[in-house]
Amino acid sequence: MHTQPLLTPVKLGRHELPNRVVMAPMTRSRAYNRDQAPTELHAEYYAQRASAGLIITEGSQISPQGVGYIHTPGIHSQAQIKGWKKVSDAVHARNGRIFIQLWHVGRISHPDFHNGALPVAPSAINPDTKSFTPQGLKDTVTPRALETREVRQVVQDYAQAAHNAMQAGFDGVEIHGANGYLIEQFLRDASNTRNDEYGGSVPNRARFLFDVVDAITDSIGADRVGVRLSPANTWNVPADSDTRALYDFVIGALSSYELAYLHLREGQGDLSAIPNMVTRVAEHYRTVYRGTLITNTGYDRDKGNAVIANGHADLVAYGALFIANPDLVERFRVNAPLAQADQNTFYQGGARGYVDYPTLQAEAA
What we know:
Strand order of the largest sheet: 3-4-5-10-11-12-13-14
Largest sheet: 8 strands, parallel, barrel
Oligomer: single chain
Number of domains: 1
């Protein structure tokens, strides 16, 4: 029997991974404490899934300014560093590898998180969506545009967060440039109408991302850094006037950094009516990006094996399947049935729907 492509080893940055199955970053809203710090429950959750070739944690805000959802952990305080160290230690004790995702939501926030102050963004444009606040879902507001000097401070916040991640024992960091959050807000011309060096042309709108990448790679080394992008995303931010040209430039430029990886989300839904939108993301950008490529969104076992076999990606990231199947790698190996995740428990807090999904071994006992 031939070995599944998903289960073959691969080099990622400075790490040799035993398989190509990645646990995707997923918000779980379990930081139920004043410090917004991970707890023993987080450590148990991630350690259960340590057989993944790589774990990428839930998005973790780089500063208090970056928060936009309830009970999400940060990586900007000593309490948070201490909490995350419990997580990385637990994963390493089971021979796993774990990167932390660095996050700033930008305009996808609400004054309720900032003592009444406005959230920040590249430009003062309301995303016209909902924010999940401590008081429930609320309409977003028109954010405050960051001043140029403030943009540079946010870049330093990213660099400090990466430094903190090393103190917390992580193997690397992923820069969250997807899903309509701050970095993607700078990239898209529908959300960035600035007239300074961070607005206007494609290189200017991409400057914030590259300033962040430069600051972090200078701090911890490029082989400890991944970047996540969503070229086909229309969630939280509209399509760019020429999305293909924008991401062809950005992803082509990222090739020169020798990063640990580039992590790309496939699009969801029918995108055919949107002009200049890449609808087969991994296939298209495999020809643009020269480094290690992770693909995500809509994959099962067979599709994951196929995308690696045909050379369109090097690794595949799984989200909901990893929530419900902590031993997903073993289930793929023996082609066992997969449990289905209970969406009602994705964000409710507590152990239920978080650390109580059984492994194959437990099911057989």
